Amino acid sequence: MKKKIFFFGTPDIAVSSLKELSKLDNVKIVGVGVFPDRKVGRKQILTPCPVKVIAQELNLPITEINTKEDLISIFNDNEIDLGIVIAFGMIFPEEILNKPKLGVVNVHFSLLPKYRGASPVQSSILAGEKTSGITFQKMVKGLDAGDILLQEKFNIQNKRTSEVFEEFSNQTAKLFPSFLDQLFNSNITPLPQDESKKTLCTKFKKTDGEIFPKKETAPEIWQKYLALNVWPEIYLSTSKGNLKLTELSLVASDNCSELSCAKNTSLFIKQAQLPGKKAMDIQEILKGNKDLFS
């Protein structure tokens, strides 16, 4: 008999898994929980989240969730064997977590217990971690504190957040068939997290993207560049306003501009963007702004 799954997710990183789950013979997706359409862009156009778009294409039942009461109703009104959560920005009330026969599984993009919280990929990269990974965990009351059900390591060295998101999204989808087979056949031994090793990470602010070459070394700024490329991106305060650094390099190349950093280190700007302008090669920008870095 097929296991009944209710899926909760919002962004692109959850899409591959929903697609994969919809193909499996041993599960039936009885619902997809998403947030209501939100206004996006300068024109504030109501736009569905990526998970809702795919759920519509797959003809899956969709429930829009505004409040925790909506969440509670889902678990009270539906027969659910397993809840699956990927990047869904709402805390689940403790009272509903054990209602499904197999509980609720949350997929978190870090090697828990490190980097619990809202920005695990960005924070791992910013800290210079060489490896990170994907953790399937049993959802409990505490933030990302549940028992580990499955964990896979991956190399993230010199990868940007957007690249890691794409890789982890695809790898999560690939892990689901085997994971669910093991879970359904009671072949997984939950592993409690070591609380002494936990670290926490929060959301980044726009101002976190500013770099300070006189204080920060090239390796430190490079990790910022890798970590913050989705949001908020990095920028340098100049005489012409905040210059967004859209493409950097660790080595010099034709048409780049050297950025001198602390402790006699250097990065090389290849492409940048001035306020109100398009991203351009740095040499093109400097032709009309010779005093940019003065």
Describe the structure.
The chain has 294 residues and is α/β, with parallel strands linked by helices. It has 2 domains: 3-200, Formyl transferase, N-terminal domain (Rossmann fold, 3-Layer(aba) Sandwich); 206-288, Methionyl-tRNA Fmet Formyltransferase, Chain A, domain 2. The protein is built from 7 helices and 16 strands. The strands form 4 sheets. A 7-stranded mixed β-sheet has the order 5-2-1-6-7-9-10. Strands 12, 13, 14, 15 and 16 form a 5-stranded antiparallel β-sheet that branches. A two-stranded antiparallel sheet has the order 3-4. Strand 1 (3-9), helix 1 and strand 2 form a beta-alpha-beta unit. Helix 1 (15-23) runs parallel beside helix 5 and helix 4 packs antiparallel against helix 6. It is elongated. The mean pLDDT is 96.
Could you estimate the helical fraction of the residues in percent?
25-40%
Number of strands: 16
Q: Could you name the CATH homologous superfamily of the largest domain? A: Formyl transferase, N-terminal domain
Low-confidence stretches: none
Shape estimate: elongated
CATH fold name of the largest domain: Rossmann fold
Helical segment tally? 7
Q: What portion of the residues fall into strands of 2 or more residues?
A: 25-35%
N/C terminus separation: 70 Å
**Average pLDDT score:** 96
Please give the CATH class of the largest domain: Alpha Beta
Main beta-sheet annotation: 7 strands, mixed
If strands are numbered along the chain, what order do they take across the biggest sheet?
A: 5-2-1-6-7-9-10
